[in-house]
Amino acid sequence: MEPRAKPHFHNTPGLRRIKVGVKKFMCVVDLPPFDHPHIFVDMGTEDESVCPYCSTVFACDGALSAPCDPPECEYKLEPETDFSGPAPDVEIGEGYLPCPPGAPRSPDAAMQTHASRTPRLESRPAGKRAV
């Protein structure tokens, strides 16, 4: 299966109609992070279709030299990242979530540090109730 095989189009300029050169594509209405769920649009035998999510009108024009008109409405996806290689050796606290200097490096040490910083409740004399 070829990932991201369908062309994607957006309507960031806010146009009423976008001409596209294909009958099957994805509509994202706006560039991320303001995009809506990527909606698959299949025109079938029709020459026009409306995105059911954002109501953008798409018209099929097979004579286009670009994927769409205006050309800036094509959403070019970034190539997928390849995660097939070996995972890097990362210690707890390094990498994405660095620990502050002097922070405990193991769960046991973290619990001991937490217990030493947690204030203890004072014991009340027998028979006294909290109000």
From TrEMBL:
Pfam families: zf-CHCC. InterPro entries: Znf_CHCC. Residues 23-58 form the Zinc finger CHCC-type domain. GO terms for molecular function: zinc ion binding. Keywords: Metal-binding, Zinc, Zinc-finger. Residues 79-131 are annotated as: Disordered. This is Zinc-finger domain-containing protein. It comes from Methylocystis heyeri. The lineage of its organism: Bacteria, Pseudomonadati, Pseudomonadota, Alphaproteobacteria, Hyphomicrobiales.
